[in-house]
Amino acid sequence: MATGAELVALAKTRIGEKYVNIRVPKDNANWHGPWDCAEFVSWLVFQKTKRLYGCIDNESNPAVAEAYSGSWVRDARSGVLTSSSEDDAVNTPGVILIRRPPAPGKMGHVAVSDGLGKTVEAAGTGLGVRPGKVRGRLWDFVVKVPELQYASTGHVAAEVTLPFMLILEDPNTASPLVRKVQRALKNAGFDPGKIDGEYGPHTVAAVEAFQMSSKLVSDGVVGPATAKKLGVDWPNPPG
């Protein structure tokens, strides 16, 4: 049985390769990019297990199967993948971390833990495949792949309080801070629609476009990194 550590070892051989929102043939062991986040993780898992996960159709031909962060969410919710935790991801190589898309058809994010408190991920346009952090980020699901064997490294990482974030919610989040974000987006050349102080789909679309142009993970979530690029003062985390 393949291991989570072997999954990470393979992932690290792709560090530095380009990011493009493109479909990847999961059965091509010699593929060296470009990648997007969901395609990268689905390719890694298929290479080690010969099974598709996180694809719109997990039973389709792996050469043409389309991976999507929303499909990773589906597999996590349905129990096809084994539920885990952020604490586990910190010290266990090969755990999958998933951020749900803000809306149907939008992009979420998927990463692989390295077991030493970091991730390997196809991070975004201009960023490519690179290491990231497990702690201090929004993850909606943390899961393991049933066909992989996992073992802890014993690594210990302090808990990190999540920073304040603006995400698409129902009903829309409304606040003066959202209005500041909207104005900053408008000034940067990214139209958020009506500047109404509501964090709705038009604002999310502008955020995603701004993030993509600014070498940030393009997920439509405004946190400290995106706010800093926009020049918006950001509140400290609670507590």
Brief characterization of the structure:
With 239 residues, the protein is of the alpha+beta class. It folds into two domains: 4-144, endopeptidase fold (from Nostoc punctiforme), CATH 3.90.1720.10; 173-230, Orthogonal Bundle (Muramoyl-pentapeptide Carboxypeptidase, domain 1), CATH 1.10.101.
Describe this structure in words.
It is a single chain. With 239 residues, the chain is of the alpha+beta class. It has 2 domains: 4-144, endopeptidase domain like (from Nostoc punctiforme) (endopeptidase fold (from Nostoc punctiforme), Alpha-Beta Complex); 173-230, PGBD-like superfamily/PGBD (Muramoyl-pentapeptide Carboxypeptidase, domain 1, Orthogonal Bundle). Helices cover 29% and strands 14% of the residues. It has 7 helices and 8 strands; from the N terminus they run αααβαββββββαβαα. A 6-stranded antiparallel β-sheet has the order 1-6-2-3-4-5. Helix 1 (4-12) packs across helix 2 (37-49). The termini are far apart.
CATH architecture of the largest domain: Alpha-Beta Complex
Strand tally, please? 8
Number of domains as seen in the coordinates: 2
* First-to-last CA distance: 44 Å
The portion of residues assigned to helices is: 25-40%
Rg:
18 Å
In CATH's first tier, which class of the largest domain applies?
A: Alpha Beta
Strand content range: 5-15%
Order of helices and strands: HHHEHEEEEEEHEHH
- The unreliable regions are none
Major sheet: arrangement of strands:
1-6-2-3-4-5
Biggest sheet overview:
6 strands, antiparallel
Question: CATH homologous superfamily name of the largest domain?
Answer: endopeptidase domain like (from Nostoc punctiforme)
Average of pLDDT: 94
Compute the number of helices.
7
Structural class: alpha+beta
Task: Estimate the global geometry from the Cα principal axes.
Answer: globular
Query: Which fold does the CATH topology of the largest domain refer to?
Result: endopeptidase fold (from Nostoc punctiforme)
Protein name: Putative peptidoglycan binding protein
Organism: Pseudorhodoferax soli
Domain Peptidoglycan binding-like: 176-230
InterPro entries: Peptidoglycan-bd-like, PGBD-like_sf, PGBDSf
